Amino acid sequence: MAHSSKPRCLTYLEATHAFADPDVQEDINDACNRLGQAMALLVERFARMAKDLHTIDLKKLDAPFKPRWDVLSKDLGDLLCLYRNNAGYISGRLKLLPVAARNMSGRSRRSYQETVQILQSFVTLSSEHFARTRSLVERALALSQQVSMFHAEFAKFVALRRSDGQKEIYDVAAKVSDVEAHTKQTCIMNAELSRPDITHLAFSVFRIVSSSGRRPNRSKIPQQRMAMSENMLKVTQAYHALELKGSELAHAQYTAQIRMHQTDCLGITQSTVASLACDTMLSLESGLALFLSIWARLRSDCGEILQWLHAATPTEPPQVLIGYQECGPSLYVALSNAVDSCVSSIDPSAIARAMS
């Protein structure tokens, strides 16, 4: 994948060759593993917050916060377990399509009907699995909204007991709400995409690497500037807007912390809840964007293969098959490994222990 200072759309073959690069694969797997670790760590962070809220509840300053937080903690644990299961469906689909497509380039009259039947069965089952991902997205957005609302209520509780710094606290609450709204917008856009170009998939994967907090080992993923096609510009803008809102929240938190006393237990807890809410929403969005971009690519590739198979006259094979001929199943293998890496740290038994 050649470095270019001018943003441009990738071709399918360029993306295939990029994902076939061992250095690129290593950096993607490392970044996805870090994302999965961050998700798993959320459960422990929620558990620690529950103890802090219990300490505050003992002062009987307001209605108890911990019972409501416990509900959110359980929802998070359930969601991560579903995320892990969903990854298994996606990884399985990614491993099976190359098998289904293996003999398509040399189609014969004898195998034509069998090939079409296999691929249509693949598409049908994939659609059922994608419906589960859509359900997962809805649950994640509901959790993000509830966490944001909890923070808003807790921030109001803290502000009413402060003689100064109320404006800064309310600013943080507003920024948390902004992050939640933009997370929802980005997820919905990705879920509703139909037949996106390959750059959308590459962008969704590479942004995980860019935001992982660690420079890639040898590949030039963050330096590769990509542009979406014209019909995908709204997605690019949504990604950039979400990143901006995250930065605005960080600045608002810093401003609020300057006004905070080191012995201000309530203020420190409120700041921690804000950070936890933001990290939860952004981590879930990154993981869901990965899943949704892969499903969009699978649907698009399968649609192009079926259209080619049903063509009345012979035409050039679709790009997915040309890429398969040149690089084998490297694109789908790389994506499957990325998905597996993303959930390798999510252990249902560890989640259950943390919530007990």
Automatic annotation (TrEMBL):
Superkingdom, natural source: Eukaryota
Protein name per UniProt: Uncharacterized protein
